[in-house]
Amino acid sequence: MSWDSGRTRRSISNDRKTRLSLRTALTTSLILGSTTLTNAQITDSSDEVTLSELSVTGTGPAVERAGGPVVGYRATRSATATRTDTPLRDTPQSVQVVPRDVLVDQQDIRLSDALQNVSSVQPGGTIQGRSDTFIIRGFRTQTYAIDGVLLNQAGTFSTVTRDLADVERIEVLKGPASVLYGRGDPGGLINIVTRQPTLVPSGDINLQGGSFGFRRVQGSVSSAIEGVDGLAARLSFAGQSDPTFRNFYGRDNSRTFVAPAFTWNPSPDTRVTFLGEFTRLDSQYDEGLVARNGGVPLDNISRYYGEPFSRYNGTANFGLLKVEHDLTENITLREVLNAQWGGFNFLATRATGLASRNTLVSRRETAGYSTYASVDSQTEIVAKFDLLGLRHTVLAGVEYSNGYRHSYTTQSTNYPSVSFLNPVPGSAIVGLQFQSDLKQKNELNGLYVQDQIDLGLGLQLLVGVRYDTGTQYYFSRIPTSRTIPPDQQLSGTSPRVGLVYRPVEPLTLYASYTTSFKPQTDNVYGAVNPHPETGEQYEIGSRLDLNPDLTLSTAAFRITRNNVSAPDPVNTGFSVITGQQRSEGVEADLAGQILPGWKVIGAVSFLDARITRDTTYAVGNRLVGAPSFSGSLWSTYAFQEGFLRGWNVGAGITYVGRRTGDLNNSYTVGGYARLDAAVFYDFNEHARFSINLRNLTDRRYIEQPFNQFNNLPGAPFSVLATITARL
Q: What mean pLDDT do residues 391-410 have?
């Protein structure tokens, strides 16, 4: 969803409206047939651009807008960093975009797969198969945004793994983003930009099957709605079953996803958008492999220390309404309303230690139940004007965020141990005892203003500041503590300043300073209203257009993070507030088209992320899951002529260096290089068949270290076949 969609919709021609009326019958049958997989057909992302509202004007190429489709692998505009439709080269902070074309060519199923195309981003753990977490510039983040709205204002992580069925592009804003988003992690912000409805009928459906019993159906249909001028709808959906390569005793992981979306333009100056997302996840509670003697044995990557009854069920619901109205050509009012609710429950056995000279894994049986609900309102004005001979784009806004419910109750008891090398299930479920009860509420009011100033002579200045104030109720009850604390008063100021300089047309240089502010949401042992976390970043960078369709981005940065929540080394399942952490490094990203038909996206990162001040963990220890060096490269080529026309080939490599698995640095997981490949054939504009091969060398490695008892191995060699049909 674009934050500053502009007036492009006014350019819809009368010729286009005529074509729309001729397609009414097709529109109706397409929407009604979206639930019947055999009747659906597909549009890939490149065709989506051709049919989008922006390109159907009768003549001329597609014009990219922030939040809209991207032609190829390189995006040129974004609203994630500024909430205005701004060229990436005019943004004084690193923003990397993974367009839908990349997702389609790689057939990315997981959000973590898509983000490995971005420098300084690593998968950070699945929270026992429940959700997605990431390491961005050395720091873990357990949440992300959808169309510019942060998930789960009242909790610590999304309750489900993210589905990509309705994703148009994935954008990563590196470094703190609190000046516009309020609470947030200092490493960066992941923003999921969703596919918008189109007035011209379009549709796509994928049928997939792969190794280890993987099955998935995914589709999206879009069209104008007859009878209401300017009203369009899109329905995206997906369902999958994934037993995986892990030994779950015949159990699998399943996920269903439905996302209706509507846009309505009642007048040329008014735009209304609605998005709903509803996800249900039923998965095995999977902690992965256990570390021993300073490392994680990889002799058997399917080894499972849980029981067949170890299951997790989660739901997540998201609703977003945005209304924009242009008072004049240069003044736009915007209102965004959001509601989120959901929860999870699980019953599982969890590894807690090693015994008998590291030959046995000690376990506990644990059950948990959690619910959350929150609302968010953003009221903004965007004004463009000249003052003292300088061009200004001013954004001013007020945000009200109320995470009015987050509860998390756990029960636990000791459970029989199993062999480290040969775990055998079969122990019965035992009675549980109370472990903890966490209840949280937070209510924040934010006031923010931002000015993008064109200084002339190739210089642009961005300045912004945000002030947040509110209250937080934080009650963590354990068996030895029942005191109910008073509400905590919260406040924080988040400034940002950046300068962009364009000495010559292909080159842009920038420098920036930005900060973050985040109330504590982890279950801190015995804590009474712990102080919020803060962060700040200094960054310099550049963007260079190597040719009209290929851009190289570089950045160097230093981030400092204070009052950090970390795992409690004494009380399992709880957190502790630690001192200070620091991350500094350099990175580069490449995206675009080298020659006609030859596309590439790549990234490289050098990172030093360590503890710099603390009394719980040793100063100088490396941060969890942050490799000193990592990189990726993916490239595809579409044959342009001759008998090979229609064939496409792709190949890629992902390298991740050695990482530490906990803040004690008690163990490490080795680096790895993974080779992937793809071949796909476009029969015509309506059909494609593709084969994607992953981990060609069948390399054994740990993909996501989380702690000593949670280390997710990477999948062995696997094959995914996809049949795509499009309208």
A: 93
